[in-house]
Amino acid sequence: MQQNLQLTTEYIKNKIGDFEPEVGIILGTGLGALVDDIEIEHKLMYSNIPNFPISTLEFHSGRLIFGTLSGKRVVAMQGRLHYYEGYDMKQITFPVRVMKMLGISKLIVSNASGALNPDFRKGDLMIIDDHINLQTDNPLRGRNSENLGPRFPDMSEPYNKNMISAAMKIAKKNNITCHQGVYVAVNGPNLETRAEYKFLRTIGGDAVGMSTVPEVIVANHMSLPVFAISVLTDEGFPDTLQAVSLEEIIKTATEAEPKMTIILKELLLELHD
Length: 273
Hints:
Blueprint lengths: L1 H15 L6 E5 L11 E7 L17 E7 L2 E7 L10 H14 L3 E10 L9 E9 L27 H13 L4 E8 L8 H9 L4 E3 L3 H9 L4 E10 L10 H25 L3
Parallel strand pairs: 1-4, 1-5, 5-9, 6-7, 7-8
Antiparallel strand pairs: 2-3, 3-4, 5-8, 6-9
Helix pairs in contact: 1-2, 2-5, 3-6
């Protein structure tokens, strides 16, 4: 991994010159329009970057965007990677390690997820304050690279409390319905059964999705503070469960995205080293 990281990082640095990002952003399903607010300096296709996995989903652009947002130098992944696409966890999280090598000091992650908490509704936002990992692999499995992080990283605070508090205040100020809650990560790609939704709620989940946790684990391994936010695109309530399509999920995410953008842009204004 060390050689691949070095090769990939050197390639990107040669393309972006003296641009050094401060914040990394991972944009989830239906949430790529934040890029429109970035003053873009460089764009790199995943397919042109050595060792970089390529997003296989037609609704993910597969580009690294470098530019300025709310006065911060950012690198944004327009299109994330998922375990269900066939990649292993090390491939999925490779971009997070590359962003850290490029200089980021904070990571922001967004996703689309299903509501489990009956007090939440489709179209609401949820800031993740903890997670339950039900995915069947771990990006840290295998020999540990001590120069990247410890063998047994602590996960008592996987999501940064200061950023959570600041974001909740921003949401309240802007009259945006935004909850805090626990995100459950599953493999996918199928959505859950009625019994599975009931189980996930029983074990403490407020929302369920198929991403985010691998990247958060690797970020914590590298001592990188994380902020994560979900757009709730469907409702997994067993008693009133309705069939949902990908088109509906993307439509809901797209409609809710402006609210998420407000929070992220104002949060960036408040971030300090």
